[in-house]
Amino acid sequence: MVDIGGGFPGDNNGSYRKDMPSFPEIAKNVRKAINDFKEKITDNGNAPRALRFIAEPGRYFVYRSTTIATKIYGRKGGKKDDQQVLYVDDGCYGSFNNVIYDHAHPVPKTLKSSLPSFTSDDQVTTSMPTAIFGPTCDGID
Question: Measured in Å, how far apart are the chain's first and last C-alpha atoms?
């Protein structure tokens, strides 16, 4: 048995990194490599040895299964400034560890409040350059 491992991208349109191939492109190359390998291990023109190839495509199957909601507990700038800084209660040592280990680039989305007391003046401005910091004092967070 040959285990080719995992780490496949999580969607069919390519990875969250633009320089990475899509899952179908990777599958095509893996299939070709397996066929090439089988051809090379023939014994004197006989059929290739019986081998079983497996992979671990877990990330591909669960990539879009989770959404993380994190609270903004602090903000600097915004409103009339040309940039803002947001402080959130989750980071690279929690739910966003894929930024460190998988080089992910999460895309934040603003959720609208349904509370009547939450006015537009209180909302975070999303149409300006924004830096987001996690809860630790570590620079990577």
Answer: 40
**Any catalytic annotation for residue 137?**
yes
Phi, psi at 107, each rounded to 5°: -110, 110
Write down the catalytic residue from 137, 138, 140, 141. 137
* pLDDT tier for residue 110 given thresholds of 50, 70 and 90: confident
Query: Which of 43, 62, 81 corresponds to the end of one domain?
Result: 62
pLDDT tens-digit readout, 42-86: 666 666 567 889 999 887 787 777 778 888 888 888 777 788 888
Hey, what are 48's tokens? 């290739």
pTM above 0.70, yes or no: no
Q: Are 141 and 74 in the same domain? A: yes
Domain that holds residue 75: 69-141
Query: Using 50, 70 and 90 to split pLDDT, how confident is the model at 88?
Result: very high
- Cβ atoms of 74 and 118 within 8 Å: the answer is no
Cα dihedral across residues 21, 24, 29, 33: positive or negative? positive
**What three-state secondary structure class fits 132?**
strand
